[in-house]
Amino acid sequence: MKKNNSPVLDREFIHLPASHEILNDEDANFFDKFLMKNLRVNTNFFRGLLISVILSVTALAVRNLLAPDTAGLQYVTFYPAVAIAAFAAGRVAGAVTALICAFFITYFLFPPYGHMAFAFHKELVWANAFFLINALVIILSFGSIRRILLKNNELISVIANSQVRQILENAPNGIIVINQRDEIEQINKRVEEYFDYTDAELLGQPISVLFPNRFKDSDAKNWRRFVEKSETTSIGMIRNIFGRSKDGSEIPIEIGINPISTPQGTKMLVSIVDMSARKALEGQIQQNDLQLRSMLDSIHDHAIIMLDELGHITNWNLGAERLKGYQKSDVLGKHFSLFIGKDKRSIQSANDQLSNARQYGYSEDEGWRLREDGSKFYASVIINSILNNTGALLGFV
């Protein structure tokens, strides 16, 4: 048996269109990462406030060191201090902390009311309220955009999955999708027909349940090992294996395996062809061939010889072996003109007989023929052409 060292598993990936074409896993998590990490929505409020206070005081202290209380200078240096503290807070602890930091500096440490002296000013309250409301709108907008995109993503996913499902259901062969644990995730109607299982009975089951025990490894965990050791066809289908139906009966199948890329990772698409009809036909052909051979061999006083379309011997009966004196193995593949002679005239005579049979369906001839020992005998020869159901020439008899 030929080993399949480079099985179908090494084929080029199939890419199924799905929702990740529009919004993949990384994109879908972008808003979560932005809100939860950069904006620190889930960070402890008191921790953020503490960082804001520390950064605000530090910024104001640096400002006071660089700019003493010169008239007007505190106003000039105040806004850079707010910007620096907010930027540092945003880098260290996220945008929410930066907003708290900016609010803290603006409200409590605004130059006219500095030195931690709290004073209630209506204009300042409204300014900061407007500032915070805008910040809140921005944060909520990110959440709304995320929800809208995810809703669209779900709709696209439903449509894509529906299209894939329709493709699978219309496939002429059985189709099984398995995950990385070799568990069945999806099947089509053909698989149900082949193995007599329902969709619900197979989903979540290891694909090995569809194969006889003798085709599994002793641990029965990696069914692909026996696949890799199996004989393959010229187009990569794995043949000469059997599937096991629900009632325990075995069916001859061929399978092909292709990796597919999905949002959940790499999965395997297993294509299954039921070979029962073909095997039955092959068995019938073999039976017919045995019957024909038995019938031909029962004829002892006539030589019956099978020729291909060029006149080479492909088979003959025991009567031909007795009359010609040759062993069957000595003449298979040789041109039938050897029974007439080896000179050009004999070869031309043999070709003329084939030409007449090809043109008219049969030809007749009488003359001397040669045995293997060189002796001659007089024979009457009839050659009939053999055609297939389309009228193409298959050979002669």
From TrEMBL:
Subcellular compartments: Membrane
Keywords, ordered alphabetically: ATP-binding, Kinase, Membrane, Nucleotide-binding, Phosphoprotein, Transferase, Transmembrane, Transmembrane helix, Two-component regulatory system
NCBIfam families tied to this protein: sensory_box
Name of the top EC class for this enzyme: transferase
Name of the protein this chain belongs to: Sensor protein FixL
Organism expressing this protein natively: Polaromonas vacuolata
Entry EC number(s): 2.7.13.3
Superkingdom per UniProt: Bacteria
Listed Pfam families: DUF4118, PAS, PAS_9
A GO cellular component entry from the record: membrane
Boundaries of every PAC domain copy: 231-287
PAS domain boundaries: 160-213, 288-361
